[in-house]
Amino acid sequence: MSKFEKLNVNVRDEKGTSSVRRIRLQNQIPAVLYHSGLDALSLSIDKKELYKALNTGQVIFEVTVQDENQFVLVKDVQYHPVNDNIMHVDFQKVKEDEKISLEVPLRIEGEAEGVKAGGILVQIVSTITVQCKPTTIPEALIIDVTNLELNSSLFVKDIQLAADVEIMTSEDLAVVSVQEPKEEEVVEEEVLEGEELLEGEEGEEGEKDKEGEEGKEGEDGKDGKEDSSEGKKEGTKESKDQKPKEEKQK
Fold it and tell me: Which fold has domain 5-94?
Protein backbone atom coordinates (compact mmCIF):
# COMPACT_ATOMS: atom_id res chain seq x y z
CA MET A 1 0.00 0.00 0.00
CA SER A 2 1.31 3.45 -0.97
CA LYS A 3 2.17 5.99 1.72
CA PHE A 4 0.87 8.80 -0.50
CA GLU A 5 -2.64 10.25 -0.52
CA LYS A 6 -4.81 9.03 -3.37
CA LEU A 7 -6.10 11.80 -5.65
CA ASN A 8 -8.75 11.21 -8.30
CA VAL A 9 -8.18 13.08 -11.55
CA ASN A 10 -9.90 13.22 -14.92
CA VAL A 11 -8.22 13.65 -18.29
CA ARG A 12 -9.75 16.55 -20.23
CA ASP A 13 -9.58 16.80 -23.99
CA GLU A 14 -10.85 20.35 -24.35
CA LYS A 15 -8.40 23.18 -23.89
CA GLY A 16 -8.55 26.96 -23.88
CA THR A 17 -10.01 29.71 -21.73
CA SER A 18 -13.68 28.86 -22.37
CA SER A 19 -13.09 25.20 -21.48
CA VAL A 20 -11.31 26.13 -18.24
CA ARG A 21 -14.17 28.47 -17.33
CA ARG A 22 -16.73 25.69 -17.80
CA ILE A 23 -14.66 23.33 -15.64
CA ARG A 24 -14.58 25.82 -12.76
CA LEU A 25 -18.35 26.30 -12.99
CA GLN A 26 -18.68 22.54 -12.41
CA ASN A 27 -16.66 22.81 -9.15
CA GLN A 28 -13.61 21.32 -10.85
CA ILE A 29 -10.04 22.68 -10.79
CA PRO A 30 -8.04 22.60 -14.05
CA ALA A 31 -4.56 21.04 -13.83
CA VAL A 32 -1.64 20.03 -16.02
CA LEU A 33 0.59 16.97 -15.61
CA TYR A 34 4.18 17.33 -16.87
CA HIS A 35 6.60 14.48 -17.51
CA SER A 36 10.11 14.68 -18.91
CA GLY A 37 10.19 13.78 -22.59
CA LEU A 38 6.39 13.63 -22.97
CA ASP A 39 3.69 16.13 -23.85
CA ALA A 40 1.85 17.80 -20.98
CA LEU A 41 -1.50 16.24 -20.11
CA SER A 42 -4.54 18.36 -19.22
CA LEU A 43 -6.48 17.22 -16.15
CA SER A 44 -9.37 18.28 -13.93
CA ILE A 45 -9.83 17.58 -10.21
CA ASP A 46 -12.82 17.81 -7.92
CA LYS A 47 -12.49 21.06 -5.95
CA LYS A 48 -13.36 19.64 -2.51
CA GLU A 49 -11.11 16.62 -2.98
CA LEU A 50 -8.16 18.80 -4.01
CA TYR A 51 -8.52 21.09 -0.99
CA LYS A 52 -8.73 18.07 1.32
CA ALA A 53 -5.60 16.53 -0.22
CA LEU A 54 -3.55 19.73 0.01
CA ASN A 55 -4.59 20.24 3.64
CA THR A 56 -2.75 17.01 4.54
CA GLY A 57 0.54 18.86 4.01
CA GLN A 58 1.75 16.31 1.44
CA VAL A 59 3.31 17.38 -1.85
CA ILE A 60 3.40 13.92 -3.47
CA PHE A 61 0.14 12.21 -4.48
CA GLU A 62 -0.85 8.97 -6.16
CA VAL A 63 -3.07 9.38 -9.20
CA THR A 64 -4.51 7.10 -11.86
CA VAL A 65 -4.07 8.47 -15.37
CA GLN A 66 -5.11 6.47 -18.41
CA ASP A 67 -5.41 3.29 -16.30
CA GLU A 68 -1.90 3.73 -14.92
CA ASN A 69 -0.99 4.47 -11.31
CA GLN A 70 1.48 7.33 -11.09
CA PHE A 71 3.11 9.50 -8.46
CA VAL A 72 2.93 13.24 -9.00
CA LEU A 73 4.59 16.19 -7.28
CA VAL A 74 2.69 19.44 -6.78
CA LYS A 75 4.97 21.90 -8.57
CA ASP A 76 2.79 25.01 -8.50
CA VAL A 77 -0.60 26.17 -7.24
CA GLN A 78 -2.15 29.33 -8.65
CA TYR A 79 -4.57 31.31 -6.46
CA HIS A 80 -7.17 33.95 -7.25
CA PRO A 81 -5.71 37.39 -6.37
CA VAL A 82 -8.82 38.49 -4.43
CA ASN A 83 -10.51 35.49 -2.77
CA ASP A 84 -7.49 33.09 -2.67
CA ASN A 85 -9.44 30.29 -4.35
CA ILE A 86 -7.30 27.75 -6.19
CA MET A 87 -7.41 28.48 -9.92
CA HIS A 88 -4.91 25.99 -11.40
CA VAL A 89 -2.44 23.27 -10.36
CA ASP A 90 0.74 22.01 -12.02
CA PHE A 91 1.88 18.42 -11.36
CA GLN A 92 5.21 16.78 -12.18
CA LYS A 93 5.39 13.01 -12.62
CA VAL A 94 7.99 11.34 -10.37
CA LYS A 95 9.23 7.83 -9.58
CA GLU A 96 9.58 6.39 -6.09
CA ASP A 97 13.20 5.31 -6.62
CA GLU A 98 14.45 8.51 -8.28
CA LYS A 99 15.61 11.65 -6.47
CA ILE A 100 13.81 14.91 -7.13
CA SER A 101 14.52 18.53 -6.25
CA LEU A 102 11.94 20.60 -4.42
CA GLU A 103 11.57 23.39 -1.87
CA VAL A 104 10.87 22.48 1.75
CA PRO A 105 9.74 24.90 4.51
CA LEU A 106 12.32 25.96 7.12
CA ARG A 107 11.05 25.83 10.69
CA ILE A 108 12.68 27.59 13.67
CA GLU A 109 12.85 25.96 17.09
CA GLY A 110 14.01 27.26 20.46
CA GLU A 111 14.34 30.71 22.04
CA ALA A 112 17.52 32.53 21.08
CA GLU A 113 19.85 33.93 23.73
CA GLY A 114 19.97 37.16 21.75
CA VAL A 115 16.21 37.55 22.01
CA LYS A 116 16.41 37.14 25.78
CA ALA A 117 18.97 39.97 25.74
CA GLY A 118 16.51 42.27 23.95
CA GLY A 119 17.27 41.47 20.32
CA ILE A 120 14.86 40.73 17.47
CA LEU A 121 14.81 37.35 15.71
CA VAL A 122 14.72 37.73 11.92
CA GLN A 123 14.09 34.77 9.60
CA ILE A 124 15.83 35.57 6.33
CA VAL A 125 14.93 32.40 4.40
CA SER A 126 11.62 30.53 4.63
CA THR A 127 12.27 27.61 2.23
CA ILE A 128 15.28 25.45 1.36
CA THR A 129 15.83 23.49 -1.86
CA VAL A 130 16.57 19.82 -1.20
CA GLN A 131 17.09 16.70 -3.27
CA CYS A 132 15.75 13.34 -2.15
CA LYS A 133 13.49 10.45 -3.11
CA PRO A 134 9.73 11.04 -2.97
CA THR A 135 9.44 8.63 -0.06
CA THR A 136 11.90 10.61 2.09
CA ILE A 137 10.66 14.16 1.53
CA PRO A 138 10.73 15.92 4.92
CA GLU A 139 7.69 17.88 6.04
CA ALA A 140 10.03 20.71 7.08
CA LEU A 141 13.69 21.36 7.88
CA ILE A 142 14.51 22.33 11.46
CA ILE A 143 17.05 24.88 12.68
CA ASP A 144 17.68 25.35 16.42
CA VAL A 145 18.29 28.98 17.46
CA THR A 146 18.68 28.40 21.21
CA ASN A 147 22.38 29.38 21.30
CA LEU A 148 22.05 32.24 18.78
CA GLU A 149 23.41 35.43 20.38
CA LEU A 150 22.81 39.10 19.66
CA ASN A 151 24.19 40.32 16.29
CA SER A 152 24.80 36.73 15.16
CA SER A 153 23.47 34.55 12.34
CA LEU A 154 22.91 30.91 11.48
CA PHE A 155 23.49 29.50 8.01
CA VAL A 156 22.22 26.70 5.79
CA LYS A 157 25.06 24.49 7.03
CA ASP A 158 23.60 24.76 10.57
CA ILE A 159 20.30 23.10 9.57
CA GLN A 160 19.55 19.67 11.02
CA LEU A 161 19.39 17.21 8.14
CA ALA A 162 18.48 13.56 7.64
CA ALA A 163 21.09 11.33 6.02
CA ASP A 164 19.01 10.63 2.91
CA VAL A 165 18.24 14.31 2.18
CA GLU A 166 20.70 16.57 0.36
CA ILE A 167 20.52 20.36 0.52
CA MET A 168 20.97 22.11 -2.83
CA THR A 169 20.92 25.68 -1.45
CA SER A 170 24.34 27.24 -0.78
CA GLU A 171 25.55 26.27 2.71
CA ASP A 172 26.94 29.79 3.33
CA LEU A 173 23.55 31.46 2.96
CA ALA A 174 22.34 33.12 6.19
CA VAL A 175 18.86 31.89 7.13
CA VAL A 176 18.18 33.49 10.54
CA SER A 177 19.75 36.21 12.69
CA VAL A 178 19.25 38.19 15.91
CA GLN A 179 19.51 41.95 15.45
CA GLU A 180 19.45 44.92 17.79
CA PRO A 181 16.14 46.84 17.85
CA LYS A 182 16.82 50.04 15.89
CA GLU A 183 13.31 51.03 14.91
CA GLU A 184 12.48 52.66 18.28
CA GLU A 185 15.54 54.95 18.09
CA VAL A 186 14.54 56.07 14.61
CA VAL A 187 11.02 56.86 15.79
CA GLU A 188 12.33 58.91 18.74
CA GLU A 189 14.62 60.91 16.44
CA GLU A 190 11.74 61.58 14.09
CA VAL A 191 9.56 62.76 16.99
CA LEU A 192 12.30 65.12 18.25
CA GLU A 193 12.82 66.54 14.78
CA GLY A 194 9.08 67.04 14.45
CA GLU A 195 8.92 68.87 17.80
CA GLU A 196 11.88 71.11 16.85
CA LEU A 197 10.24 71.89 13.53
CA LEU A 198 6.96 72.70 15.28
CA GLU A 199 8.71 75.03 17.74
CA GLY A 200 10.51 76.75 14.87
CA GLU A 201 7.22 77.30 13.04
CA GLU A 202 5.60 78.70 16.17
CA GLY A 203 8.56 81.07 16.66
CA GLU A 204 8.28 82.31 13.10
CA GLU A 205 4.55 82.82 13.48
CA GLY A 206 5.15 84.76 16.74
CA GLU A 207 7.66 87.07 15.06
CA LYS A 208 5.32 87.61 12.13
CA ASP A 209 2.44 88.43 14.52
CA LYS A 210 4.68 90.86 16.45
CA GLU A 211 5.83 92.56 13.28
CA GLY A 212 2.22 92.79 12.14
CA GLU A 213 1.14 94.41 15.41
CA GLU A 214 4.04 96.89 15.34
CA GLY A 215 3.22 97.78 11.75
CA LYS A 216 -0.42 98.27 12.65
CA GLU A 217 0.47 100.50 15.59
CA GLY A 218 2.75 102.54 13.34
CA GLU A 219 0.00 103.00 10.81
CA ASP A 220 -2.46 103.99 13.54
CA GLY A 221 0.03 106.59 14.88
CA LYS A 222 0.61 107.93 11.42
CA ASP A 223 -3.10 108.25 10.84
CA GLY A 224 -3.46 110.06 14.18
CA LYS A 225 -0.75 112.56 13.26
CA GLU A 226 -2.34 113.17 9.90
CA ASP A 227 -5.73 113.72 11.57
CA SER A 228 -4.18 116.14 14.08
CA SER A 229 -2.42 118.08 11.33
CA GLU A 230 -5.60 118.38 9.32
CA GLY A 231 -7.44 119.58 12.48
CA LYS A 232 -4.87 122.30 13.05
CA LYS A 233 -5.15 123.46 9.45
CA GLU A 234 -8.94 123.66 9.67
CA GLY A 235 -8.71 125.57 13.00
CA THR A 236 -6.31 128.15 11.53
CA LYS A 237 -8.52 128.62 8.51
CA GLU A 238 -11.59 129.20 10.68
CA SER A 239 -9.82 131.80 12.84
CA LYS A 240 -8.71 133.71 9.74
CA ASP A 241 -12.27 133.74 8.41
CA GLN A 242 -13.62 135.11 11.69
CA LYS A 243 -11.31 138.18 11.78
CA PRO A 244 -12.78 140.00 8.71
CA LYS A 245 -16.28 139.47 10.06
CA GLU A 246 -15.39 141.14 13.36
CA GLU A 247 -13.78 144.11 11.60
CA LYS A 248 -16.91 144.66 9.53
CA GLN A 249 -19.08 144.71 12.62
CA LYS A 250 -16.93 147.46 14.15
Answer: Ribosomal Protein L25; Chain P (2.40.240)
